[in-house]
Amino acid sequence: MCPLLKNFFHYVILVVVVSVFSACDKISVPRLAFDDKHEPRIPVTITYAFASNLLTYTQTVGGCGLPYTIPVGEIISKTFLQVGQERFMGVRAEPPVGEAQGVSPDGYRIVLSLEQFGFDPVTRSGQEDRYDVFVDLKLHALYEDANGTSLAQSPLTYHQKVRLWVPELTSQSVSCHTDQIDGTVADAAETLAKQMTGVLPQLVQLNTGQQPVAPQPGSPPPALQSPAAGVPTTAPPVASPSVQFRTKLIDANRNLVLEGGEAI
After folding, report:
1. Could you give phi then psi for residue 190, rounded to 5 degrees?
2. 53: number of CA atoms within 13 Å, CB side?
3. For residue range 176-193, what is the model confidence (pLDDT) as tens digits?
4. Nearest C-alpha neighbor of 47 from the set 158, 142, 155, 189
5. 15: part of which helix (H) or strand (E)?
6. In this structure, is the dihedral angle defined by the CA atoms of residues 27, 28, 29 and 35, taken in order, positive or negative?
7. Domain boundaries, the chain
8. Does residue 156 contact residue 140 with C-beta atoms inside 8 Å?
9. Prediction pTM value
10. In whole angstroms, what is the distance from residue 213 CA to residue 224 CA?
C-alpha cells in the first residue's frame, strides 16, 4: 500500500502544478534594476600630451613560463583616453597618439609622464599557476591652460597587491593567457585616471577665481596660502616688484593632491 500511496500523491502534486501554470498567462519575476546613472561630465576639453618615456615603456615578465613583454605605455594611454571620454566634455591627444594641434580656448593641456612602474611577483600561492604580484605605478601630471601656462602639477600613485592566474604552456595549450597581466596594468591606470579627474574640478575653480569646494565635515580645510582679506601684512623685502603665490590642496589624510603657483 505504501508504494501505491506514494505514487498517488506524486500524481496529485503534478496535476496541481500543471493546473496553476495553465491558469496563469505569465509568471512575474522580480525585475533586477541596475543603476545606470553616470556622474555629470566636467565641462572642459582635455588635450593629453603623453610623454615619450611613458608611451614607449614596456616591461618583460614571466608569463606561461616564457618571457612576456607588457605594453605598459600603450595600455596607460588608451585607458586614460577611455576614462576621459566618460568624464570630460571633450578629449583629444597630441601625436603620436592623436592628431590634436593646440588647445581649445576653454580647455586644458595635461602632460602625463611616467615616473615608476613595478610588476614584481612575490610568491606562488597554494593553487597552481596563481601568483601574488605587487603592482606599482607612479605618474606625474602637469596641467596647462590654453596659453601654455603651467597651472599646477600632481603626483598620481598606485600600489596594490593582486593575484593572477597565468598557467604555464603545455602540449594541450592553445595560447598564453596574458589577459590578466594586461588587465592588471589597465586597472592601475584606470584608478589613476579617475584620481586625476577628481583634481580637475578644483583646478578649474582655482583658475576661474572661484572658491574651492568646501571640505566634508571632520576633514581639514585645504591649505591655501594667500593673504587674508582685510588683515594687514608686512611684506618682506623682495629684489623685484613681483609677488608669487602658491596654492596647495590636500585631502582628508593630508596628502598633497594639487599644487600650483602664479606670479603677479
Report:
1. -65, -40
2. 10
3. 778 888 999 999 999 999
4. 142
5. helix 2-22
6. positive
7. 42-205
8. yes
9. 0.65
10. 12
